[in-house]
Structure prediction request, 427 residues.
Amino acid sequence: MSVTILVGGQWGDEGKGKVIDLLADRVDMVVRSQGGSNAGHTVVAEGKEYKFHLIPSGVLNPSTVCVIGHGVVVNPKVFLEEVDNLHAEGVSTDNLFISERAHMVMPYHPELDRLGEVQRGDDRLGTTARGIGPAYEDKVRRIGFRIGDLQKPAFLEKKLRFVLRLKNEALTKLYDAEPFDEGAILDEYLGYAERLDPLIRDIYPMVRDAIAHDRKILLEGAQAIMLDIDLGTYPYVTSSAPTAAGACAGSGIAPSRVDKTIGVFKAYTTRVGYGPFPTELTDSLGERLREVGNEFGTTTGRARRVGWYDAAVARYAVETNGIDSIVLTKVDVLDEVPTLGICTGYMWRGEYWDHPMANISHLKHCDPVYEEMPGWMTSTRDCRSYDDLPPRCRAYIERLGELSGAPIDVVSIGPDRQHTVVRRDLL
Ligand code: IMP
Prediction:
């Protein structure tokens, strides 16, 4: 098994970071392939909590090569802060590299993100305000800055003059906001250049050689299918492709080289930001699950919206990503829920839909079709094997696997590495 992709199967925050951390010491290379510092993983290892936004959590294993692929938009300031925090904890970053082709989040991107949201008013998306959308916009518009540009100061300066004129025009004329200063940006980014220089690589030969030598590579996706720019609940999505296909594009690895795709799903559903969420629980049970599951964003601290497991979304995720194996997380959060709802599809104007509709207004107004199952009403935290789990918990897991269309091979029952029940090895 050489190339494995790991993706989120819902609206993000499924606990991918923990799974990557579990797998990292069994792979030679982890490549982050899309998104930016909008993502947030919290990993608990040996009682210590680590927060990651850009750096693959695989960095905790010193022998794993960690690569930020060209599909990622990198905010160098956030990246270097993360590096400094890791060093302060005694974690080495000697094996960490960034693709020369990865685009950078520039200082005007978060500001344009924020102002764009204000301009949308009631129709705002609820972005993380990290400048992700504006950075991808510039990439596609071919006025973005790549990490490799840091190694070409004269080019950087010339291009910044041109691009900043466009940006400042938008800021001052469209938004009545303050312009950015060219000299200040240049100084700031040339400062980053000095520190980033040793980490910048053309990752193509690295990845090619790793594949040629049959090294184990894990492609780490951020966000998830329902936030996909095409397949998600557009426009309430992120600006990249958090799918298995996106992982290939963002790392430069051909789909035919991929051996396995793992999907991470929470045992219920959460979503941050606005947009349709058919199984949302807006009652006291939703509030309780949010508290028990500590459903507050790692990146923004925002309260996450909480709802029942949506098997129609899960099936869609399994099929569009080609998921072979599911990791089901946060099962313990449901320990004290007497009756569990599972959405199997939707009714909209008398018609049954077995998948999330492309028309988000229909998705917003549909009625989820639910199956109910009895809860297990006992703690699962100390279970260490699948057979230790209460029978009703196992029945719930089995049913989710059946409805979602892929086997649930790993179950997570708490934040720590030891809170993990493996039914079948992932790699
Ligand atoms: P953006 O990616 O900051 O542009 O935000 C667009 C949408 O994606 C918003 O609804 C965000 O809350 C959501 N989003 C972005 N990154 C994540 C993530 O890592 N987890 C969950 N939601 C995210």
User: Anything to note?
Assistant: Residues 153-174 form the longest helix (22 residues). Residues 12-13, 38-40, 125-128, 130, 132-133, 222-223, 227, 236, 238-239, 272-273 surround inosinic acid (CB under 6 Å). Residues 3-100+199-262 form a domain with the Adenylosuccinate Synthetase; Chain A, domain 1 fold (CATH 3.40.440.10).
